[in-house]
Design goal:
Blueprint (H helix, E strand, L loop, with lengths): L9 H19 L5 H12 L1 H22 L6 H21 L5 H24 L12 H16 L3 H10 L4 H25 L6 H8 L2 H17 L2 H18 L3
C-alpha cells in the first residue's frame, strides 16, 4: 500500500520511530516523556492527522506496560478517575469545534502549573498536600485527563502530577498509570474512527512499522526504572513532567 501520503522523506520515518521509542519508554518508565512525542508527530504529520496516527502507538505501548506491570496497580485511584475522565471525553467532543486548540492547551497548562506549585510548596515545607484528600481532587484530574487526551493525547502530565501529588511509590505509580491509560486509550479508538475519521488502513499499516521501536523503548524504560532509586524516580518524573507542562504553552 502506498504510504507516500504520510511519508515524504527519511526524516519522517526517523520522527515516527523516535516518537514510538519515546512513547514505549514513557509507558514502562518515566511518565510524561510521551508528551514530547506529541509536537514531534504534529510537526511531521499535521496536528489532527497525527492524533489518529499516534493513538495506536499509545495503545500498543499501554499493552506492553500492563503485561509487564499487570499485578501492580492502586485500583482505587483508577476507579476514582475513570468516571470523570469519560465526562472529559464528552466535553472535548462538544467544544472541539468552538474553542481553538491552543486556547485549551494554555488553559490546561495554567491549571497544571498551579497544581504543581502547590505540590512543590507542600514538599518543601514537609507537609502533606491537603488538596489531595479533598473529594473533588481525584475527579478533577480525571476530567482534565479525559479532556486533554481527547484534544491532543496530552494527558500524561495530568496523570503524572496527580500520582506524584498523592506520593505513590514508583512501581505502583507505573502500574496504576498503565492500567488507567489502557482503558482510556482503547475507549478513544471508536471515537477517533467514527467521529474524527483520522484512523485509516494506511495509518494502521504505518503504525505496525513502529512496533519494534515501541518494544525497544519499553525495555529501555524497564531498565531505567530499575536503576533509579525511589527519590530519583520522583525527581526525574517531576522534571520531565514540568518540561511537558511548559511545552503546552509553546
Amino acid at each position: 500500500m502506498d504510504l507516500s501520503i504520510w511519508i515524504q522523506t527519511p526524516t519522517d520515518w526517523g520522527m515516527l520511530f523516535m516518537s514510538a521509542f519515546i512513547i514505549g519508554m514513557s509507558k514502562t518508565g518515566i511518565q510524561g516523556l510521551s508528551l514530547i512525542s506529541v509536537p514531534l508527530m504534529a510537526l511531521t504529520f499535521g496536528a489532527k492527522s497525527s492524533t489518529g496516527l499516534i493513538l495506536p502507538i499509545l495503545c500498543t505501548a499501554d499493552l506492553v506496560a500492563v503485561l509487564y506491570y499487570r499485578r501492580i496497580a492502586e485500583w482505587k485511584y483508577v476507579f476514582k478517575l475513570l468516571p470523570t475522565a469519560l465526562m472529559g471525553f464528552v466535553l472535548a467532543l462538544l467544544v472541539d469545534k468552538i474553542v481553538p486548540p491552543d486556547g485549551f492547551k494554555h488553559l490546561m497548562g495554567g491549571c497544571l502549573v498551579i497544581v504543581m506549585l502547590v505540590m512543590f510548596w507542600s514538599e518543601r515545607n514537609g507537609k502533606e498536600n491537603r488538596l489531595s484528600s479533598c473529594w473533588w481532587y481525584g475527579p478533577l484530574f480525571g476530567l482534565l485527563g479525559g479532556f486533554t487526551t481527547m484534544i491532543g493525547n496530552a494527558a500524561g502530565p495530568v496523570m503524572a502530577i496527580y500520582l506524584l501529588s498523592v506520593k505513590m511509590p514508583k512501581y505502583s505509580f507505573i502500574g496504576t498509570n498503565a492500567w488507567f491509560f489502557l482503558v482510556i486509550n482503547y475507549l478513544k479508538i471508536p471515537v477517533q474512527i467514527l467521529a474524527w475519521d483520522n484512523i485509516t488502513k494506511q495509518s494502521l499499516i504505518l503504525d505496525a512499522y513502529t512496533i519494534p521501536f515501541i518494544l525497544l523503548g519499553g525495555v529501555a524504560g524497564i531498565i531505567l526504572i530499575k536503576r533509579l532509586p525511589e527519590r530519583g524516580f520522583r525527581n526525574f518524573t517531576t522534571a520531565v513532567t514540568s518540561l511537558s507542562v511548559l511545552m503546552l504553552f509553546i
